[in-house]
From TrEMBL:
Any single biological process term in GO: formaldehyde catabolic process
Name listed for the protein in its UniProt record: S-formylglutathione hydrolase
Reactions listed under catalytic activity: S-formylglutathione + H2O = formate + glutathione + H(+)
Origin organism lineage: Bacteria, Pseudomonadati, Pseudomonadota, Alphaproteobacteria, Hyphomicrobiales
A single cellular component GO annotation: cytosol
Catalytic residues of the enzyme: 147, 223, 256
Entry keywords, A to Z: Hydrolase, Serine esterase
Function in brief: Serine hydrolase involved in the detoxification of formaldehyde.
Length: 277
């Protein structure tokens, strides 16, 4: 693992690191904030998965998580959203596919499958690296994210309920298999057989019996992607009649940006800290 940068912040350390990824077959960059309490004891790990077009840097620069993460003693891990590098296939004019749009899935179709293994990267390879290099209590992990990353967090929690104790999302896409901006990507990554998409669709996972105790979702009503992409009410419908708890908060005037995310960041950190105690 290579250190790209380390800066003291709120008595903790904001670092950026790079490593050769076996899963994605390229160099991957990620950010980790380590709170001051980790000097003396292992601390819980909270994963933040970013949305389309992002790298590890968007939330690190605009998410405003450090003050409270330092107080609560949370390690915050912010991975990249896709494989990177000249060898990695991409669609240069399509921001919803390829680099910056890995959808946290393991692709099976050519030419994507060779590098686009983001599900394995996030759930297997990176956790193992984090546990080796940081004072992380891997028995206490939570996961959250934004948009495509909110969807990634929810699907990963639903598939790994024993590993994660908490999950939340900002403006998540909840049913990517039926939204115009994500269905084409699922088809290219996973092929035309839609049954293979279901493990990467939060609503379909719940319909198919996956369970997670509870979710917090914040959504801005002025989000331009709300009606044709995100549609959190579909997850509300999918969870109705199940034992899944859903706290869905709709906010007047807020859009899809990091101004919205940073406004509600503290609420999410507290939500996770309470469940990772
Ligand atoms: N590039 C798209 C917008 C993509 C977008 O809004 N991405 C969200 C995640 S889905 C984001 O977090 N963007 C980066 C940022 O705001 O820093 C457009 O021009 O319409």
């Amino acid at each position: 693992m290579k250190v790209i940068s380390q800066n003291t912040a709120f008595d903790g350390m904001q670092g950026v690191y790079a490593h050769e990824s076996d899963a994605c077959k390229c160099e991957m960059t990620f950010a980790v904030f380590v709170p001051p309490q980790a000097i003396s004891e292992p601390r819980p790990v909270l994963w933040y998965l970013s949305g389309l077009t992002c790298t590890h840097a968007n939330v690190m620069e605009k998410g405003e998580y450090r003050r409270l993460a330092s107080e609560l003693g949370l390690i915050i891990v912010c991975p990249d959203t896709s494989p990177r590098g000249n060898d990695v296939p991409d669609e240069l004019t399509n921001w919803q596919m390829g680099k910056g749009a890995g959808f946290y899935l393991d692709a099976t179709e050519k030419p994507w499958a060779e590098h686009y293994q983001m599900y394995s990267y996030i759930t297997e390879e990176l956790p193992s690296l984090i546990s080796q290099h940081f004072r992380a209590d891997m028995t206490r992990q939570g996961i959250f994210g934004h948009s495509m990353g909110g969807h990634g967090a929810m699907t990963i929690a639903l598939k790994n309920p024993d590993r994660f104790k908490s999950c939340s999302a900002f403006a998540p896409i909840v049913q990517p298999s039926t939204a115009d901006w994500s269905a084409p990507a699922l088809e290219k990554y996973l092929g035309a057989d839609r049954s293979t998409w279901r493990p990467y669709d939060a609503c379909a996972l719940v319909e198919d019996g996956a369970r997670f105790p509870e979710f917090l979702i914040d959504q801005g009503k002025a989000d331009s992607f709300l009606d044709n992409g995100l549609r959190p009410w579909l997850f509300e419908e999918a969870t109705k009649g199940t034992d899944i708890g859903l706290r869905l908060r709709m906010h007047d005037r807020y859009d899809h940006s990091y101004y919205f995310i940073s406004t509600f960041m503290d609420d999410h950190l507290k939500w996770h800290a309470e469940r990772l105690r």
